[in-house]
Each structure stands twice: as C-alpha cells, then as structure tokens.
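$ ./design --mode recover --in tokens.txt
reading tokens...
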C-alpha cells in the first residue's frame, strides 16, 4: 500500500478535511452528554446480570486481599504473568466506602469507558467535524460489544480501549501538528503493554500503519530532531522492540497457508459475532436470542463501498474545489490498515480465541467507515450532497435501530436468571449471603470447580472469605492411581474438621471431572459429604453445597 501524498495540515488550519480549531463550542459539551448518558444507561441496566464472574474478579483480586502474582514493596504489579494490576490499585478505597457489589465493581469500569467515548469524540472531531464526531460517539455508545464487554470488563479490556483511544488521539495530533516528537504515545504503549501483554498487537499495528501511510510526514519531522536525541530514541525503541519480540515470539504460530486462512475466517466470523453481541451472549446465556447479524459485517462492507464511491465521485468532478480530501483519505486508510494488521496478529496467536480478543478491532472499523462516508458525501457538490447525507443517515439509523433491538432482546433474556450458565449467574451474590450464614460454623469452604473462588472471597464477609479455599485444580487433577491420592484426599477432607464444599449444579458444570473426583475423594477419605438440606431451591438450581462433619 502506497501512502497518499500530501503535506501535513495543522489542526488550526481550516480544510475540506474538517480540521478545526482546538477550542470546543459550548453546544458540544451539552451534546456530548447524549452518547455518554445513553451509554451509562445501557451499561448499568440490570447491572447484576450477567453475574460477577471469576476473571472479572481476578483482575481486582488484590483489592479484596488475594495475593498478586508479582509485587513491589507490597504493591501489586502483576495479577498474572501477562496481566497488570492497575485496577487493583483503585478498588480498595471504593470497597471501603461502598462495599463489594456489582455496582461498586462495574460502575468504575463503565465510567472509564465514558472517558474512552470522549477521546473518540475528540479524535473524530479533529479529523472530520463536531457533528460527525457526535454521531460517531452515538454509534460507539450503542455498540453491543462495547457495552457488554465494558460492563463485565471481559479480558480485561476497559483500560486497553482507553489507552488505545488516547494513543490514537495523541498520535494523530502529532502527525497533524507541528510537534517533532511524541513521547507521550510511547509512554502509553508501556502502560498499555503493562495492563495486558496483547496490547502489543495494537502497538505493532499503529507503528506499521503510521510508517506506511504517514512516512513522508514522519521523515519531515525527524529531519528537525537533533541527531543525539534521534539516536537515543532509536536505540530505545529497538531495545523495547527486541524485548517485546522476546516475550511474544514464542507465543506466535508459524503461519501455514491453509491453517492461517482457516483462522482468519474464524476470527472474521468471531468479529461479526462480537459486533452484534452474539459472542458475549453465547458465553453467558444457555439459549441465545436470535440477534440481528448484519450489523457485524456491514460496517466494513459500507466502508469499502463508500471509499469506492468517493474515489469515483472525485474522479468525475472537475475543478480544484473538488480535489480529493487527502487528509481524510489518509486517516481512513490508516484505520483500515490497523484493522487488517490486528486481525492478522490475532490469527497468528494460538492463545487468542474469544470476543475479548476481537474487541481489539474496535473502533477501527467505525473510524474507517465514518471517514469513508465523509469522503463520499464531500465528493459530491450541490443538492446531491444533501441526498447522499440523507441516505447515509438512513443507513445509520437502521444500523442503530438494529443494535438497540439486539440490546433489547438481550435485556429481555437477562430477566430469566435461570437462563444464565452457572459461572455467569447473578445468583452468586445470593450464594455468598447463604455462605455468610452457613459458613460461620465451618472450618473451611472448598470450591470444587473453577469459577467460584474469587467471587466468594470478594462477596462474603471477611471472616467467611478467609475460609474460602479455591482448590478446584486439586479436584480436577486428582486420580485414584496417583501414589499420593490418599494423602490429598485426607488433606481436602480432614476428619477433625467441619467443612463446606461448593460446586455448580450437575446439569451445568464447568468441569464435570472435578465433580466426579470430589465424590471419589470423599469416599477415599471415608468422610461422607451430604448435600446441605437448607440450600434454597433457587440456589439449588445453579449450585451444589455439600457439608462434612468432624468425627
């Protein structure tokens, strides 16, 4: 792909590309409340559903007393080998003031995503116009995957999206302005990579796309940078790049044509399902409603169509006033190239496989589509432009209506608590309340399956939370053929203790083998574990609670 030649345009200049001054009009602040309030309303609707789940609690686990993977002078640094501990720094004061609940856990993430929406508005406002930026923000605010993946911070991805939006804004300001360096973007790369290592996908895509599309702008800026600074920065970037490659290269899969094409097609389909909200719905609902599917693939199709029509429109126009808007075209190609590179990187990473990975493609598709639509509308002059804008507005309204219909269908499905898989059930909070009463006389509370320990440690009273033992891996890996099988069973079922054992229902297990091993271990230890007779029927539909007695 060849870069489109043009001279850099400063943000203060007026141009057909929509560049406007940095100051915001008063109406913009009021108008921006429309997408923000829309997003907050949709994201907080029935905030307890889906229920608090294991990974969501895992990234904030030091906030309720669980040890981090890496600490520095007692401060959590890494939650796991590839996830940073930023969120765990924020939550202790929140929990101290408001307690642990779906509201105190999810509302901060939703508010961070409001900041992401504001950054997206500022970026599109700089490239196009405030009105186009406002409509773009509305499209993002009603995007099902942005709403649901923000709500549960699946991945995690809330800080990733925020850092990504800020990187795009600062990088474009640097490309579009007079500043020679962009150290702030590099700092954000480090912060984003620290938040979660797969942020490197975005870093590679941004660097590659910028060097391809804006290479003349970069070379012009570099000529004025002192050689010492340039050499130092270059050496630093090379060192960081080699370190990143040392970390991620072992994770990549050697590309084979057939396998790569299959994975690309798989992740393209997953991207479509993510955009419609189908992917997260399939994760937490037993029966997925028939969500509209066209909103997923249509954005890229419309982007290509608008680009082709814009180029045709400019080709048929005569006169300097109708010369192609190279600034906006560059931005559109920049976003499209980043979309393609990230999709390829995801396909090359064997560990990738969920909507929390394909959300990395958001909002490059919408950014490219809006800039292509703007190009097409401004390739036509006179009364025809109004007709084009009307048609584009109609397509947008249909797309928004389809998204809102899909959201309505999911919200309706959320009313049926029994329709959730156990690991995403809103009943987890009721289970914690039950254990607060039942666990007072217990010596320990063992989690037989994955997906319970983090929530119970957070939601139960401190005295009860200290008794929770998240030993699901022990149950999963146990075998009667192991030489230490008897010793492990005796440790999990000590004869002198009165303990509780919690798992999901037999009809909806996470690890059926763990449930089976639990029964075998109990028999091996010679300690009966009858079901808790006082477990309420609604909880019994989702969970099993067993109790043992001291001998």
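writing sequence...
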């Amino acid at each position: 792909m060849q870069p489109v030649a043009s001279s850099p345009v400063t943000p203060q200049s007026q141009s057909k590309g929509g560049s406007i001054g940095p100051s915001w009009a008063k109406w913009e602040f009021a108008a921006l409340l429309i997408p923000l309030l829309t997003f907050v309303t949709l994201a907080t609707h029935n905030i307890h559903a889906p229920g608090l789940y294991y990974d969501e609690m895992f990234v904030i686990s030091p906030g309720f007393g669980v040890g981090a993977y890496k600490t520095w002078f007692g401060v959590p640094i890494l939650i796991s080998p590839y996830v940073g501990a930023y969120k765990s720094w924020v939550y202790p004061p929140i929990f101290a003031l408001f307690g642990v609940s779906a509201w105190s856990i999810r509302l901060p993430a939703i508010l961070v995503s409001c900041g992401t929406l504001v950054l997206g508005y500022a970026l599109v406002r700089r490239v196009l116009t405030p009105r186009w930026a406002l409509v773009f923000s509305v499209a993002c605010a009603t995007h099902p995957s942005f709403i649901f993946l923000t709500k549960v911070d699946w991945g995690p991805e809330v800080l990733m999206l925020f850092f990504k939006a800020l990187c795009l804004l600062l990088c474009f300001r640097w490309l579009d302005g007079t500043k020679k360096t962009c150290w702030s973007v590099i700092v954000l790369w480090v912060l984003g990579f620290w938040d979660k290592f797969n942020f490197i996908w975005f870093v590679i895509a941004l660097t590659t796309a910028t060097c391809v599309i804006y290479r003349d702008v970069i070379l012009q800026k570099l000529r004025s940078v002192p050689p010492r600074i340039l050499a130092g920065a270059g050496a630093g970037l090379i060192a960081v790049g080699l370190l990143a490659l040392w970390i991620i290269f072992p994770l990549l899969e050697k590309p084979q044509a057939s396998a790569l094409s299959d994975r690309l097609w798989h992740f393209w389909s997953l991207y479509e399902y993510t955009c419609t909200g189908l992917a997260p719905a399939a994760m937490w609902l037993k029966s997925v409603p028939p969500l509209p599917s066209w909103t997923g693939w249509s954005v890229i199709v419309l982007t290509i169509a608008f680009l082709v029509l814009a180029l045709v429109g400019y080709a048929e126009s005569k006169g300097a006033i109708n010369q192609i808007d190279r600034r906006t075209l560059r931005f559109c190609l920049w976003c499209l190239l980043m979309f393609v590179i990230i999709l390829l990187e995801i396909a090359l990473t064997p560990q990738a496989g969920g909507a929390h990975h394909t959300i990395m493609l958001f909002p490059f598709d919408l950014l490219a589509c809006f800039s292509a639509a703007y190009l097409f509308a401004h390739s036509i002059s006179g009364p025809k432009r109004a007709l084009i804008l009307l048609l584009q507005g109609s397509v947008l309204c249909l797309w928004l209506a389809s998204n809102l219909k899909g959201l309505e269908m999911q919200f309706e499905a959320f009313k049926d608590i029994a329709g959730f898989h156990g690991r995403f059930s809103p009943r987890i909070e009721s289970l914690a309340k039950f254990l607060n009463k039942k666990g007072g006389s217990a010596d320990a509370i063992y989690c037989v399956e994955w997906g319970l320990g983090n929530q119970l440690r957070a939601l139960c009273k401190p005295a009860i939370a200290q008794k929770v033992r998240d030993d699901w891996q022990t149950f999963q890996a146990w075998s009667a053929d192991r030489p230490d099988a008897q010793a492990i069973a005796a440790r999990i079922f000590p004869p002198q203790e009165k303990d509780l054992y919690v798992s999901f229902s037999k009809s909806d297990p996470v690890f059926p083998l763990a449930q089976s091993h639990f029964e075998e271990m109990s028999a091996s230890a010679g300690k009966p574990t009858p079901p808790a007779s006082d477990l309420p029927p609604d909880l019994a539909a989702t969970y099993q609670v067993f109790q043992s007695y001291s001998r």
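exit 0
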